[in-house]
Amino acid sequence: MTTIEREMIEGFDLTNPPDGFAEDPFPFYHALLEYAPVCAQPDGSFVLTRYADLDRIYRDTTLFISDKKRAFLPKFGGDAPLYEHHTTSLVFNEPPLHTRVRKIMVGALNARAIANMEPGLIDTIDMLLDQMDGREQVDLIEDFASKIPIQIIGNMFNMPMADREPLRDWSLAILGALEPTLTAEQLAKGNQSVIDFKAYLKDLADDRRRHPGDPETDVLTRLIESEEGELSETELLQNCIFILNAGHETTTNLIGNALAALHDFPGQKYALKSNPEIIKTGVDEFLRFLSPNQLGNRETTADIEIDGHKIPAGSNLHLVIGAANRDPAQFDDPDELKLMRKPNRHLAFAGGPHLCVGFQLARMEGRIAVNRFLKKYPNYQLTGNAELGGRLRFRGYAKLPAKLN
Ligand code: HEM
């Protein structure tokens, strides 16, 4: 182990990460993978980085659960709106709530429903590309990547166009509250966003009960129709918030990260321009290489041992998806972007019973957005003053300024 590697992992603490980690966690991930794949944390939790460990943990819902009622109590406080939200959404629940909501979502996002969204997605993307025409400089997040999922997810809920603007800020504040550490200001903003979002959705749901939509295409109507006897009003509203958020920042980051990665790998950019078909495998390589969701969590239900570490029941495990997706034991040349990589069984959408419900939709958004962007602006260049979002859990850019021609 080199001195630098030792410094990187000695006393590694996700709640107080070392300098440089938020900007470029990948050298730290490699040091952890090599020398501390199960890294005990000062607060009693564990950071896990190996692909094989994460893959196994995601599949095993007996030993590793998603329920966060215990873990979030000290973080948010039991009465906080953020506590109600995050402990009611399907992603942080076990059956029966998880199964009920997931069934509705899987039904709403079937292959036919996704294919039906394609023409509208292409129109949205082409309109955004046309709006950037002739501009000296654009921000690929503000002007492009962040605008796409808002429309897709807004359409899924048949939400009036004029109502969509606050969605991104609410989503950033609510999902941002899942970061390992939070300031009082971030906590207050997250709580207020849950209150505002829930109030907005209550009105929308009341209106939809009076004027039901087509359950084939309208997820809110689908959820409301399943409400009786299945979901309480709180469960309905909090899961709507989760679904609206889940499909949102992650997909923005997939598109933004892909355009940044292509800039850093001009050979791959050239290959994609010459043969747009390789986006089919390419989209998964973007997801592997710069995973929008870098961290997941599970709680142990029994005393276990991994890599010689005794892990007691009730421990919080930080599953570092971003590291597992760069694990050399699973991927050749993990730090190279190879758009034709195959096989590419990355964990960007996690795995097991909580595998991302929107993964096919997200892939479609990524494929179409990147290829149409590249077709219209093949010579785009980043102008060097990009700003990362600064989060550990969600990796993406806050600003990605570029020249288009
Ligand atoms: C690139 C985009 C996306 C990424 C990287 C992503 C990633 C993930 C991950 C890692 C999980 C599992 C979390 C866990 O169990 O710890 C998840 C769950 C989920 N995602 Fe996505 N997601 C994306 C897009 C979407 C979209 C577009 C939608 C819907 C419109 C969506 C809906 C969901 C839902 C409903 C769950 C919860 C599934 C469950 O708990 O059973 N996601 N996502």
Automatic annotation (TrEMBL):
<dbReference type="InterPro" id="IPR001128">
    <property type="entry name" value="Cyt_P450"/>
</dbReference>
<dbReference type="InterPro" id="IPR036396">
    <property type="entry name" value="Cyt_P450_sf"/>
</dbReference>
<protein>
    <submittedName>
        <fullName>Cytochrome P450</fullName>
    </submittedName>
</protein>
<dbReference type="InterPro" id="IPR002397">
    <property type="entry name" value="Cyt_P450_B"/>
</dbReference>
<dbReference type="Pfam" id="PF00067">
    <property type="entry name" value="p450"/>
</dbReference>
<comment type="similarity">
    <text>Belongs to the cytochrome P450 family.</text>
</comment>
